[in-house]
Specification:
The chain has 231 residues and is of the alpha/beta class. It folds into 2 domains: 138 residues, Rossmann fold; 69 residues. Strands 3-2-1-4-5-6 form a 6-stranded parallel beta sheet, with helices on both faces. Strand 2, helix 6 and strand 3 form a beta-alpha-beta unit. The radius of gyration is 19 Å and the shape is elongated. The two termini are 22 Å apart.
Length: 231
């Protein structure tokens, strides 16, 4: 059993959380949004459309991925493209819901006097929409995106920006995320306690040389690892 990394009397000052697939399941919502786009088009494969977003040609949320797939199918038409983009965005957002135990755990952390921040590579508008939709936005003192910090993870800029905003020392802070490379590695390099959200690692991307201090099978386990329990 891993020992607790904090108590109500010592240690943890701040918790930084990745957002997508750490606080909620974006991939499930995204896959369903792709299915609805294909239903509208009447042709194509939802999984192939989903894979378009993973190519690295455009951003993970860039509508240009939909345009490229429509071109591949030879069905591109400007009006249909606009409908597809709206459908994709509306369905995706409608299905974003906090994982079980997330809100209760954030409340526990906040009640324990721990400062909270989101550190995400999503665009600011997307981040705020999703956090608002899930009802989580008010738990966080700051939401740090690349527009704010200037660089994407795994560069440490967003983590450092959040720590400065929370006036928290890295050694007394926790980084929680579903990516060993993009969340755990930069947190570890800064000297933070790291908590790997294994439940959100939908690619099962094990990296032997990157080890987290804590491995979570659900977000709700975090409070216990930090020595925080319900009164």
């Amino acid at each position: 059993m891993q020992k607790p990394y904090g108590t109500r009397h010592t240690t943890v000052e701040a918790v930084l959380c990745d957002m997508d697939n750490t606080l909620f399941d974006l991939v499930r919502a995204k896959r369903e949004a792709c299915r609805c786009v294909i239903d509208y088009l009447g042709t194509g494969d939802p999984e192939l459309l989903f894979l378009q977003f993973l190519r690295g040609v455009h951003g993970f949320e860039d509508y240009a991925n939909i345009r490229d797939y429509m071109n591949d199918l030879e069905v591109y038409e400007e009006r249909a493209f606009e409908v597809c983009c709206r459908t994709y965005e509306d369905v995706k957002l409608s299905l974003v819901e906090a994982y079980p135990g997330v809100e209760e755990t954030l409340q526990q952390l906040r009640d324990a006097g721990i400062a909270l921040a989101v550190v995400t590579d999503a665009e600011a508008t997307q981040a705020r929409r999703r956090l608002t939709k899930t009802g989580l936005i008010d738990y966080f003192e700051t939401v740090v995106t690349p527009e704010v910090s200037g660089r994407r993870k795994p560069e440490p800029d967003s983590l450092l920006y959040a720590l400065r905003r929370l006036d928290a020392a890295p050694a007394r802070s926790v980084m929680v995320g579903d990516s060993l490379v993009r969340d755990i590695a930069p947190g570890r390099d800064l000297g933070m306690v790291t908590a790997f959200a294994a439940y959100g690692d939908w690619r099962d991307s094990s990296v032997p040389e990157i080890k987290a201090d804590i491995v979570l099978t659900e977000f709700a386990e975090l409070a216990g690892h930090l020595g925080i329990t319900d009164r």
